[in-house]
Design a protein that fits this description.
13 helices; 26% helix; alpha+beta; 579 residues; disordered N terminus
């Protein structure tokens, strides 16, 4: 125990020495802070026209501070008193230290942090402080007794807010309960010492304001304010400095970026039932603004969805109550997590549904496209190809390009699949579903070699799912070998589309005699009527390596076109590759 105490004392001693050393090296007077560089530069120029020693630095919070100095501590306090009394600087200006300052932006090209202290522009005997009109000296320099009196007027929530702000600043690590016990008093004293105030353990009115302004800087920087949407029936705090209302397209109120931050938001409002809520839960996950990576939770009559990928972080919440679904979505650029977390927490805490609900016809005149849902872009896979069921458990055969470098592979119904085996030379992949499926039809492989010039048909999603169902493309066997005479591949006289690749090749008995391969894309161009297909022997070999036994064909009787179409539709699947 003695050893632990010694170590703690060591760090406290040297930490305090470092803090005092920093004060001796020079302090600053922070007179203003702005959320954007442009505004800060304009204000720095305005102050520089009236005051000496004006500098600008980026703060660790992301704001831009305008300061004067650096001075010795006593000189800085005298300058602060005089300038405030003369009303040359705001009344809430305060002493700041160099460790709070990052890159300098004013004057351009300067590096004042390396220069050392300079002489103060005022002297005590020349500039006695006089309280300015409208400014209370007591507010600026309350006694401990006066600070305690002001503290008693705080509400319970205001007291909790102060503890929360002290915790965020790194000075408080106990319960947020609004009770100012020894731990809270100690943290207040530490905060006062760190910021150059007398360590009384009781914050004055201006110190409380300084603490809360620092804590709320992320919210202030995005213009957090109360917003009421009468049509949607929702009230909440929103970052209106970076968002602006755009339009209604039921069930959403759309908010577009109003700054270079590129944030977006939706208010969700519609009448509904538990089934409607579940449908909304699924629809939201299909949108581009809701990335695939992240937690999802649907519990009872509410859901939350989080997504992080491709440069954005998205959060959605919605709940059903009294036949009305209300919620919101916040989309924020990655790399600004601290501010996003504060904004999202404020939106969640302030979210208040009212009686109104958005008219279901709102935005009916807006542009309609198959890839839009209420004005929102549906997420699209990087690539879609055909495939077919090779066994009764739902194992799928497809082309390798449908599974290469994919963060996620799904079938058209949303079922996730993983690569069980891949033959890179042939360009074929075996996909195994995460959950056992029950296919309507399963491939029956014809082991006998088809005859040249015999009729065949390829089942595939020619337009990568745009038609919603597979189509049949008819042709003939042109050769039972590849273009260079290689075994394992046959040549077809058939005009296929890129989306058909991976589809089964049928003979006139409905048996599978091959799988369509992609159109070669490197080094050569084939005529439109020439396609290549993998032979059954090679497909069976690949399936065996994946631990799958294909079903051998038993029927050799020609079937009708309708029966072929039915069999092909139940067997052929659309395979999506997602980034």
């Amino acid at each position: 125990m003695t050893r632990v105490f010694t170590v703690i004392t060591f760090f406290l001693f040297f930490g305090l020495r470092a803090a005092f050393a920093q004060q001796d090296a020079g302090v600053w007077i922070q007179i203003e802070a702005q959320p954007s560089l442009r505004e800060a530069q304009e204000r720095a120029q305005a102050y520089a026209n009236a005051l000496p020693d004006v500098n600008g630095f980026r703060l660790n919070s992301g704001w831009y501070a305008i300061v004067i100095g650096p001075y010795l501590r006593d000189d800085a306090e005298q300058v602060l008193r005089v300038y405030r009394a003369e009303r040359q600087i705001p009344s809430d200006s305060f002493i700041a230290f160099s460790n709070a300052l990052a890159q300098q932006f004013w004057p351009v090209g300067a590096n004042i942090l390396e220069r050392g202290v300079i002489n103060a522009p005022v002297q005590p005997e020349q500039q006695p402080e006089q309280p300015a009109i409208g400014f209370s000296l007591q507010d600026a320099d309350e006694t401990r007794s006066e600070a305690l009196q002001g503290e008693r007027l705080l509400t319970a929530q205001e007291r909790k807010d102060l503890q929360t702000a002290l915790q965020a600043a790194g000075f408080y690590n106990s319960t947020i309960d609004g009770a100012f016990g020894q731990g809270t008093r100690r943290s207040m004293s530490d905060w006062q010492s760190f910021n150059g105030f007398e360590a009384t353990g009781v914050l004055t009115t201006l110190q409380r304001k300084t603490l809360m302004d620092d804590y709320n800087a992320p919210l202030i920087s995005v213009g957090m304010a109360r917003y009421s949407d009468v049509q949607a029936g929702i009230e909440l705090d929103m970052p209106l400095g970076v968002l602006a209302f755009d339009r209604y397209e039921a069930p959403f109120a759309h908010f577009k970026p109003a700054s270079d931050l590129d944030a977006q938001a939706l208010l969700i409002s519609q009448e509904g039932s538990p089934a409607t809520l579940r449908a909304l839960y699924q629809v939201m996950q299909s949108l581009e603004i809701v990335p695939l990576d992240g937690e999802r939770a649907l519990r009872g009559n509410s859901f939350t969805i989080e997504g992080r990928s491709q440069g954005i972080t998205s959060y959605t919440q919605a709940a059903l109550k009294d036949g009305k679904i209300k919620g919101f979505t916040l989309v924020w650029p990655e790399g600004d997590e601290a501010r996003r977390a504060r904004v999202m927490a404020a939106m969640r805490a302030s979210f208040t549904p009212t009686d109104a609900v958005l008219d279901a016809s709102a935005g009916a005149e807006a542009e309609q496209r198959i890839d839009l849902v209420s004005g929102l872009q549906v997420r699209k896979p990087r690539l879609s190809r055909s495939g077919f069921y090779a066994d009764s458990n739902g194992t799928v055969l497809t082309v390798s390009e449908a599974s290469d470098s994919c963060s996620r592979i799904t079938l058209d119904g949303g079922q996730e699949v993983q690569v069980a085996w891949q033959d890179a030379d042939l360009g074929v992949s075996v996909l195994r579903p995460s959950q056992t499926l029950a296919p309507i039809s399963v491939a029956e492989f014809q082991s006998d070699q088809p005859r040249i010039q015999s009729q065949v048909a390829v089942s595939g999603f020619s337009y990568e799912g745009a038609l919603g169902a597979p189509t049949l493309t008819f042709g003939k066997i042109a050769d039972i070998r590849g273009l260079n005479g290689e075994d394992g591949v046959k040549r077809l006289a058939l005009a296929a589309q890129p989306g058909d690749a991976g589809g089964p090749v049928f003979d006139d008995s409905g048996n599978v005699v091959g799988m369509l391969l992609p159109i070669p894309s490197e080094g050569r161009t084939l005529p439109d009527s020439v396609s290549l297909a993998a032979n059954v022997d090679r497909l069976t070999e690949v399936l065996n390596k994946a631990g799958v036994s294909g079903q051998t064909a038993q029927n050799s009787t020609q079937i009708s076109a309708n029966e072929l179409s039915r069999r092909a539709s139940g067997m052929t699947v659309l395979v999506h590759c997602w980034d």
